Amino acid sequence: MLAFVITTIVCFITYLLFTTGSGDIAGLWSIEELLIGLILSLITGFISQTVFVKDEDVRMANPLKWLLFLVYAIGPFFVSLAKANVDVAYRVITGKINPGIVKIHPNLKTDLSVTILANSITLTPGTLSVDIDEENNDLYIHWINVDEQAIKQTPIDCKYVCGSFPQWIRRIAE
Amino acid sequence: MITIITGIIYVLLGIGVFFNILASIGLLRFPDVYTRLHAGTKCTTFGSIFIIGSVIILGLRSWYFGDVNGSVLAIHSMGALLAILVTNPTGAHAIARAAHKSGVKPAQAVIDTLEKEDNS
């Protein structure tokens, strides 16, 4: 039941966001859009509740987690993204590369957190996630400028390739 | 006021186009599929953030001056940005994984942990 309600609300909010400017209610919506949106959201919520909320796991419905995710996206993530681009720009112009594939053990448990980490890694300085070990969620990462210090041990320390991301993501998604 | 906002929009567009050009040059200059993906994902995502950011500001500006259709422009652009942020790294990951499975070796590699573990 809770899964159905959450899915319906998320659908309805999404529908409202994409139909602004259609009428006069609150200056943005028309009554037809509101009604149709509500009916469609109820149908969608009924069909896709088991896909959207897996195993009655409703922890991600907590607005605080979404706020934390927003802080993460605007703060450390965006700074790393900017650094990544200056770094790649430097390598595009000079052609200096020293690549290799390394393995890290981020110690995350849920699918969602591993997905966020892998995407964050791909978008941040000099790293690209290549493959995943699905048993213990180890990530294989293509690193454009391998640090000699880091590769002495396998799996290598997370701090070399993704900084404080695993801690952030553990707080957000686990 | 309008001139300042127009100036900001042009600056954002300029930054975005600069990074997208860098991505194209990177695609041509780098030696193998993995390093090309580095250029292709990071720079295009970053460039697109700025280009879409300028569109969002344009939409918010016309919304602020009374045109409700500006909200459509701004919100739909945010949807596009979200889609790019999610799909771009995921697609790069899929291409890199497929390349490694089909036996493409990283050029000039100093270490390849995945290769070692596949053979052992």
What does this structure look like?
The complex is a heterodimer of chains A (174) and B (120). Chain A is mainly alpha-helical and 174 residues long. Helix content of chain A is 56%, strand content 10%. Chain A has seven helices and three strands, in the order ααααβαββαα. In chain A, α5 packs antiparallel against α7. The longest helix of chain A has 22 residues, at 31-52. Chain A starts with a helix and ends with a helix. Chain B has 120 residues and is an all-alpha fold. Chain B is built from four helices and no strands. The mean pLDDT of chain B is 82. At the A-B interface, α4, β1, α5 and β2 of A face α1, α2, α3 and α4 of B.
Order of helices and strands of chain A: HHHHEHEEHH
Helix percentage range of chain B? over 70%
Q: Can you tell me the residue ranges of chain B where pLDDT is under 50 for at least 5 consecutive residues?
A: none
Oligomer: heterodimer
Distance between the termini of chain B: 66 Å
Largest interface: A-B, 39 and 45 residues
Poorly predicted residue ranges of chain A: none
Distinct helical segment count of chain A: 7
The main pleated sheet of chain A reads as:
3 strands, antiparallel
Strand content of chain A: 5-15%
Strand order of the largest sheet of chain A: 1-3-2
Major sheet size, sense and barrel closure of chain B = none
Average predicted confidence as pLDDT of chain B: 82
